[in-house]
Amino acid sequence: MTARNYVLLCASITVLTVLSILFVPGLSDTIESRMLTFLVTNSRS
């Protein structure tokens, strides 16, 4: 995978994530709770 393809892949995933958070009800709460769980789990180690 070239650097250009990698950047395009990351950008498209980012845009899809942002749009899904904005327009899918309840998804932002789920993502937030999973991120907080991940951060709390990793901060203990």
Question: What do these coordinates show?
Answer:
- The protein is mainly alpha-helical and 45 residues long.
- It has one domain.
- The chain has helices at 3-23, 27-43.
- It is flat and about 35 Å long.
- The termini are far apart.
- The model has no long low-confidence stretch (mean pLDDT 92).
Helix content: over 70%
The average pLDDT is 92
Instruction: Report low-confidence residues grouped into runs of 5 or more.
Output: none
Rg on CA atoms, Å: 14 Å
End-to-end CA span: 33 Å
Sketch the major β-sheet.
none
Helix and strand pattern: HH
Total number of helical segments? 2
Tally of extended strands?
0
- Which structural class is indicated by helix and strand composition? mainly alpha
Count up the domains. Answer: 1
Structural shape:
flat
Into which percentage range does the β-strand content fall?
under 5%
Short recap of the structure:
The protein has helices at residues 3-23, 27-43.
SSE order and pairing:
Blueprint: H1 3-23, H2 27-43
Primary descriptors:
45 residues, mainly alpha, 0% strand, flat
